[in-house]
Specification:
There is one protein chain. The protein is 49% helix and 8% strand. The strands form three sheets. Strands 6-5-7-8 form a four-stranded mixed β-sheet. A two-stranded antiparallel sheet has the order 1-2. It has 20 helices and eight strands. The longest helix is centred in the N-terminal third of the chain and has 22 residues. By secondary structure, it is α+β, with helices and mostly antiparallel strands.
Length: 443
């Protein structure tokens, strides 16, 4: 039984058993999470969500990252998850395209302000939550995403519920109950990508995970096989789920080690497009205006997710390969400014975007892309990008993630604790009360 096997593994997976490399990978993801949440918390989508939820909030007991105010734990879990993921600048498990830390970390942080949680316990629970979010994602991929499920939200609530359940020290039956209540909330649609509504799925998965585990603590029961049951999560959301992807090699093969961190604020399938266009720009000896066509050939997911030639907002541009190619060639960079409303409406960008076409190259791996540019005089330039920056075989270093953190922290109004929070994350194992770490996550 898959659900039973997962629960039994989570119960026995204690901090002293967590491999050092997995421990470190979880810290990298946590630092990256704080970076994107600090910057994302003042995005208009997050602002409007908080404005809507604030009148209904309970006790001010949990931190809203990057903000002076507090809220109740459920609201904090929702808002912090939405903030971390809103600009698609958070971590990504490439095989599944899941952003695992956004749904998993916020409910763990919220719980740490309600119950005493040590740093070692926290990192262990974070690693477990990320691990099973990605393993469950492996079991239903690639069909799950192709059918239109937003896999970060749907699988994130399940992994996060297990992480929270670990901190609550739930037994086998109650961990399975937590999966049942989490599966009842597993939702999110790809159709919402590029719109504020995407954040409802991600925020809801974090809030739902906290609710599911706390319900289970009260013996709020559920089915014995919430994942693998005939009408359980796996069979409902995938025609042929691969159960062994969840249960094989537990404790020896860690998907957490394949969770990467982005150098650009956009969908991971676009990273190679940006890398290639930045390199091609260095070669150009003619004005950008002389470009007549740009052809991108890549993995089918590049077209499925990022073939958006006529985006209207910066939010939509985060999942547009055409926009990413255009801004990289015009500006020689691809940061938050390049994926803004203003840049989308720049006539130069709109003009070049219309010259970009996508085609599927079935044999091309997901992190790779072939780019061809043709010029008015008939000449051309080509490049094949393998292992784009930030992907599994070309990961950001610890120093790169720190630099990303500092850059995004500067976007958070009145925030002055960057160095303290960086140090606190790397040294979280020594922390006997994780709630104290959050004092460095606010202005």
């Amino acid at each position: 039984m898959v659900s039973q096997t997962i629960a039994e593994f989570v119960i026995t997976a204690n901090p002293e058993n967590l491999p050092p490399e997995v421990n470190h990978a979880a810290k990298r993801s946590l630092l990256n999470f704080f970076a994107t949440a600090l910057e994302g918390t003042h995005d208009i989508a997050v602002e409007r969500a908080l404005e809507t939820m604030r009148p209904f909030a309970g006790m001010a007991e949990a931190t809203l990252i990057g903000r002076a105010e507090k809220s109740d734990a459920m609201t904090a879990a929702f808002i912090n998850a939405a903030a971390a993921n809103v600009h698609d600048f958070d971590d990504t498990h490439i095989r599944t395209i899941i952003h695992p830390t956004a749904p998993v970390a916020p409910p763990l942080l919220a719980l740490s302000e309600l119950r005493l949680v040590t740093g070692r316990q926290f990192i262990n629970a974070l690693a477990l939550g990320i691990e099973f979010t990605c393993r469950i994602g492996n079991a239903v991929s690639p069909e799950h995403y192709a059918r239109g499920w937003h896999i970060t939200a749907t699988c994130g609530v399940l992994g996060a519920a297990l992480g929270v359940g670990k901190l609550l020290d739930l037994g086998t039956d109650r961990l399975i109950f937590a999966l049942g209540s989490a599966s009842a909330q597993a939702s999110g649609l790809v159709e919402n990508l590029g719109f504020m509504a995407k954040s409802v799925g991600v925020g809801g998965s974090a809030r739902g995970a906290l609710l599911a585990a706390l319900l289970a603590e009260k013996n709020y029961n559920g089915p014995s096989a919430p994942l693998e049951g005939v009408r359980g999560f796996l069979n409902v959301t995938s025609a042929d789920p691969q159960l062994n992807e969840i249960t094989d090699d537990l404790g020896t093969r860690w998907e957490t080690l394949h969770n990467i961190h982005k150098p650009y604020p956009c969908g991971i399938v676009i990273n190679a497009v940006i890398d290639g266009c930045l390199k091609l720009r260095e070669r150009l000896t003619v004005p950008i205006e002389e470009v007549t066509s740009i052809k991108l050939s890549g993995h089918p997911l590049l077209s499925q997710r990022a073939d958006r030639p006529d985006v209207q907002t910066g939010r939509e541009s985060q999942v547009s390969a055409q926009h990413a190619a255009a801004v990289s060639l015009i500006f020689g960079q691809a940061g938050l400014k390049e994926f803004s409303d203003a840049t989308v409406n720049d006539p130069r960008v709109r003009g070049l975007t219309r010259k970009v076409t996508l085609e599927v190259a079935q044999s091309t791996l997901l992190p790779d892309v072939h780019i061809g540019i043709t010029f008015a005089d008939g000449s051309s330039e080509e490049i094949f990008v393998k292992d784009a920056r930030g992907t599994n075989d070309s990961p950001l270093s610890d120093a790169d993630i720190e630099a990303k953190f500092r850059e995004l922290a500067r976007c958070a109004p009145n925030y002055k604790h960057a160095e303290q929070l960086i140090k606190a994350v790397w040294q979280i194992d020594k922390n006997n009360d994780v709630s104290t770490l959050l004092k460095d996550a606010i202005p």
